[in-house]
Amino acid sequence: MGYLLLITGLVLMALTFRETLSRLAAPDGTSSTRDPFQAGSPAVIDELRLLQAKVDLLAETVGEVAVKIEGLEARGPRGDDTAEPETGFEQVLAGERHADLYRQVYQAFDAGKDVTEIARDMARGKGEIELILSLRR
């Protein structure tokens, strides 16, 4: 929510800046403020047009960012338990591999093998095998 307020403030500043630039660049000289750069100078008018283009681009970019932030806020916070995690094929396959490894470790341990033997047979660390066996208990 804070980001949205910040972006809204930036957009308002950009719009105010645009209005000020258009008053300074008025060809009829109806500027309500004193212009130290002589508003009628072609170099100043070109510079003002360049700045106006940059302000327009900035306002457009800020608008796009605001839309993206609103979309992220609609999705909810990261720790939101209501959002269902996406489960891809790789994640399911990795889960099955772990389940298969766990079954093999449990069967080997039930068959009377030592933790060191199981670790060597499965090319895993002894600590990993001990952890898997401790999860069973």
Q: What does this entry look like structurally?
A:
With 137 residues, this protein is mainly α. The protein folds into 2 domains: 2-75, no CATH class; 89-136. Helix content is 71%, strand content 0%. The chain is built from 5 helices and no strands.
What keyword list fits this structure?
single chain, about 140 residues, mainly alpha, 2 domains, 5 helices, rod-shaped
Tally of domains: 2
Summarize model confidence as the mean pLDDT.
77
Rg over CA atoms, rounded to whole Å, is 33 Å
Oligomer: single chain
Written as H for each helix and E for each strand, in order along the chain, the element string is HHHHH
Largest sheet: none
Helix and strand arrangement:
Elements: H1 2-24, H2 42-75, H3 89-110, H4 115-121, H5 126-136
Helix pairs in contact: 1-2, 3-5, 4-5
